[in-house]
Specification:
The structure is a single chain. By secondary structure, this protein is α+β, with helices and mostly antiparallel strands. Helices cover 45% and strands 11% of the residues. The strands form 2 sheets. It has a 4-stranded antiparallel beta sheet with strand order 1-2-3-4.
Protein backbone atom coordinates (compact mmCIF):
# COMPACT_ATOMS: atom_id res chain seq x y z
CA UNK A 1 0.00 0.00 0.00
CA UNK A 2 1.38 3.42 -0.90
CA UNK A 3 1.73 6.32 1.51
CA UNK A 4 -1.23 7.90 -0.30
CA UNK A 5 -3.32 4.76 0.34
CA UNK A 6 -2.32 4.66 4.01
CA UNK A 7 -3.13 8.30 4.66
CA UNK A 8 -6.56 7.96 3.06
CA UNK A 9 -7.45 4.82 5.01
CA UNK A 10 -6.16 6.32 8.27
CA UNK A 11 -8.19 9.49 7.69
CA UNK A 12 -11.25 7.37 6.97
CA UNK A 13 -10.80 5.34 10.17
CA UNK A 14 -10.39 8.49 12.25
CA UNK A 15 -13.50 9.97 10.67
CA UNK A 16 -15.53 6.83 11.44
CA UNK A 17 -14.45 6.93 15.09
CA UNK A 18 -15.34 10.60 15.43
CA UNK A 19 -18.80 10.00 13.98
CA UNK A 20 -19.58 7.18 16.36
CA UNK A 21 -19.40 3.56 15.21
CA UNK A 22 -22.98 2.57 16.02
CA UNK A 23 -24.57 5.73 14.62
CA UNK A 24 -22.85 5.37 11.26
CA UNK A 25 -22.74 1.66 10.65
CA UNK A 26 -25.59 -0.34 12.00
CA UNK A 27 -28.81 -0.42 10.01
CA UNK A 28 -31.53 -2.75 11.23
CA UNK A 29 -31.59 -6.19 9.54
CA UNK A 30 -34.26 -5.06 7.04
CA UNK A 31 -33.25 -1.45 6.48
CA UNK A 32 -32.06 -0.12 3.14
CA UNK A 33 -29.72 2.87 3.14
CA UNK A 34 -31.04 4.11 -0.20
CA UNK A 35 -27.55 4.50 -1.59
CA UNK A 36 -27.44 4.29 -5.39
CA UNK A 37 -25.06 1.83 -7.05
CA UNK A 38 -21.46 3.03 -7.13
CA UNK A 39 -18.69 2.03 -9.51
CA UNK A 40 -15.78 0.17 -7.89
CA UNK A 41 -13.24 2.31 -9.75
CA UNK A 42 -11.52 5.15 -7.88
CA UNK A 43 -9.17 7.60 -9.58
CA UNK A 44 -6.26 6.51 -7.41
CA UNK A 45 -6.59 2.90 -8.62
CA UNK A 46 -4.18 3.95 -11.36
CA UNK A 47 -1.43 4.37 -8.75
CA UNK A 48 -1.24 0.75 -7.68
CA UNK A 49 -3.48 -1.58 -9.68
CA UNK A 50 -2.72 -3.16 -13.05
CA UNK A 51 -4.44 -1.77 -16.18
CA UNK A 52 -6.60 -4.91 -16.30
CA UNK A 53 -7.74 -4.47 -12.69
CA UNK A 54 -8.47 -0.79 -13.30
CA UNK A 55 -10.62 -1.55 -16.36
CA UNK A 56 -12.34 -4.40 -14.52
CA UNK A 57 -13.27 -2.03 -11.69
CA UNK A 58 -14.69 0.47 -14.21
CA UNK A 59 -17.15 -2.19 -15.40
CA UNK A 60 -18.37 -3.42 -12.01
CA UNK A 61 -20.54 -1.65 -9.47
CA UNK A 62 -21.43 -2.06 -5.81
CA UNK A 63 -25.15 -2.18 -5.09
CA UNK A 64 -27.55 -2.78 -2.25
CA UNK A 65 -29.89 -5.77 -2.61
CA UNK A 66 -33.54 -4.77 -2.79
CA UNK A 67 -36.67 -6.96 -2.60
CA UNK A 68 -36.38 -7.97 -6.27
CA UNK A 69 -32.75 -9.04 -5.82
CA UNK A 70 -33.58 -11.13 -2.74
CA UNK A 71 -36.49 -12.89 -4.47
CA UNK A 72 -34.57 -13.48 -7.73
CA UNK A 73 -31.59 -14.91 -5.89
CA UNK A 74 -33.88 -17.29 -4.01
CA UNK A 75 -35.47 -18.49 -7.27
CA UNK A 76 -32.18 -18.99 -9.11
CA UNK A 77 -30.62 -20.86 -6.18
CA UNK A 78 -33.72 -22.75 -5.06
CA UNK A 79 -32.17 -26.19 -5.68
CA UNK A 80 -28.57 -25.24 -4.89
CA UNK A 81 -26.71 -25.20 -1.57
CA UNK A 82 -26.47 -21.42 -1.53
CA UNK A 83 -26.79 -19.06 1.41
CA UNK A 84 -29.78 -16.73 0.98
CA UNK A 85 -29.10 -13.02 0.67
CA UNK A 86 -30.84 -10.43 2.81
CA UNK A 87 -32.36 -7.04 2.14
CA UNK A 88 -29.67 -4.36 2.15
CA UNK A 89 -26.81 -6.79 1.58
CA UNK A 90 -24.11 -5.29 -0.63
CA UNK A 91 -23.01 -7.18 -3.71
CA UNK A 92 -21.15 -6.50 -6.94
CA UNK A 93 -22.59 -6.73 -10.43
CA UNK A 94 -21.95 -6.00 -14.08
CA UNK A 95 -22.70 -2.33 -14.84
CA UNK A 96 -23.79 -3.12 -18.39
CA UNK A 97 -26.75 -5.39 -17.64
CA UNK A 98 -27.69 -3.98 -14.23
CA UNK A 99 -30.74 -2.30 -15.80
CA UNK A 100 -32.22 -5.72 -16.63
CA UNK A 101 -34.34 -7.77 -14.25
CA UNK A 102 -32.05 -10.08 -12.29
CA UNK A 103 -33.53 -13.16 -13.97
CA UNK A 104 -32.84 -11.72 -17.45
CA UNK A 105 -29.10 -11.20 -16.94
CA UNK A 106 -26.51 -13.61 -18.31
CA UNK A 107 -24.98 -16.03 -15.77
CA UNK A 108 -22.41 -14.73 -13.32
CA UNK A 109 -23.60 -11.11 -13.40
CA UNK A 110 -23.90 -10.76 -9.62
CA UNK A 111 -21.87 -11.85 -6.59
CA UNK A 112 -22.39 -11.36 -2.86
CA UNK A 113 -19.01 -11.72 -1.11
CA UNK A 114 -19.08 -12.26 2.65
CA UNK A 115 -15.97 -10.16 3.34
CA UNK A 116 -14.43 -7.02 1.85
CA UNK A 117 -11.34 -8.88 0.68
CA UNK A 118 -13.61 -11.45 -1.00
CA UNK A 119 -14.68 -8.81 -3.51
CA UNK A 120 -11.33 -9.19 -5.29
CA UNK A 121 -11.90 -12.86 -6.22
CA UNK A 122 -15.58 -12.32 -6.96
CA UNK A 123 -14.65 -9.55 -9.39
CA UNK A 124 -12.07 -11.78 -11.10
CA UNK A 125 -14.76 -14.43 -11.56
CA UNK A 126 -17.24 -11.88 -12.85
CA UNK A 127 -14.67 -10.51 -15.29
CA UNK A 128 -13.39 -13.83 -16.61
CA UNK A 129 -16.78 -15.41 -17.17
CA UNK A 130 -19.54 -12.83 -17.38
CA UNK A 131 -17.88 -9.69 -18.77
CA UNK A 132 -15.51 -11.39 -21.21
CA UNK A 133 -17.53 -14.43 -22.27
CA UNK A 134 -21.28 -14.25 -21.89
CA UNK A 135 -22.82 -10.81 -21.28
CA UNK A 136 -24.40 -9.45 -24.50
CA UNK A 137 -24.66 -5.97 -22.96
CA UNK A 138 -20.88 -5.46 -22.70
CA UNK A 139 -19.63 -3.29 -25.60
CA UNK A 140 -17.36 -5.26 -27.90
CA UNK A 141 -14.56 -2.71 -27.52
CA UNK A 142 -14.62 -3.17 -23.73
CA UNK A 143 -14.61 -6.97 -24.07
CA UNK A 144 -11.61 -6.87 -26.42
CA UNK A 145 -9.69 -4.49 -24.16
CA UNK A 146 -10.34 -6.70 -21.12
CA UNK A 147 -9.08 -9.73 -23.06
CA UNK A 148 -5.99 -7.86 -24.22
CA UNK A 149 -5.11 -6.48 -20.78
CA UNK A 150 -5.76 -9.80 -19.05
CA UNK A 151 -3.16 -11.42 -21.31
CA UNK A 152 -0.47 -8.94 -20.20
CA UNK A 153 1.67 -9.93 -17.24
CA UNK A 154 1.54 -7.37 -14.42
CA UNK A 155 4.19 -7.73 -11.73
CA UNK A 156 4.38 -5.96 -8.40
CA UNK A 157 0.67 -5.14 -8.35
CA UNK A 158 -1.65 -5.30 -5.38
CA UNK A 159 -4.50 -7.73 -4.89
CA UNK A 160 -7.32 -8.47 -2.50
CA UNK A 161 -6.12 -6.34 0.42
CA UNK A 162 -5.92 -3.23 -1.76
CA UNK A 163 -9.44 -3.96 -3.05
CA UNK A 164 -10.70 -4.43 0.52
CA UNK A 165 -9.16 -1.15 1.66
CA UNK A 166 -10.86 0.69 -1.19
CA UNK A 167 -14.24 -0.74 -0.17
CA UNK A 168 -13.72 0.70 3.30
CA UNK A 169 -13.20 4.12 1.77
CA UNK A 170 -16.41 3.67 -0.25
CA UNK A 171 -18.35 3.07 2.97
CA UNK A 172 -18.71 -0.71 2.84
CA UNK A 173 -18.35 -2.62 6.10
CA UNK A 174 -18.58 -6.25 7.22
CA UNK A 175 -21.65 -7.22 9.24
CA UNK A 176 -21.26 -10.82 10.42
CA UNK A 177 -21.05 -12.73 7.09
CA UNK A 178 -22.36 -10.07 4.72
CA UNK A 179 -21.32 -6.67 3.41
CA UNK A 180 -23.38 -3.54 3.99
CA UNK A 181 -23.26 0.16 3.15
CA UNK A 182 -22.79 2.58 6.04
CA UNK A 183 -25.94 4.55 6.79
CA UNK A 184 -24.33 7.97 6.59
CA UNK A 185 -23.17 8.47 3.01
CA UNK A 186 -22.55 12.15 3.77
CA UNK A 187 -19.89 11.03 6.24
CA UNK A 188 -17.77 9.84 3.32
CA UNK A 189 -18.33 12.74 0.92
CA UNK A 190 -15.33 14.84 1.97
CA UNK A 191 -13.15 11.76 2.06
CA UNK A 192 -14.07 10.74 -1.49
CA UNK A 193 -13.46 14.26 -2.83
CA UNK A 194 -9.91 14.05 -1.51
CA UNK A 195 -9.31 10.95 -3.65
CA UNK A 196 -10.48 12.49 -6.91
Amino acid sequence: MTHHDNSNINSHNAMMQSLGHDAVLHPSPIQLTGRPPVMLYLSWDLDSLSPYQVLLRKNIELFEANHEDVESHAKVHANLPSKPIVLGQVGIRCRHCAHLHALQRAPGATYYPAKREGVYQAAQNLGNSHLIEVCPSVPEAVRKELLHLRSQKASGRKGKKAWGDRLTVLGVYEDTDILRFALRLDAFRDQLHKLE
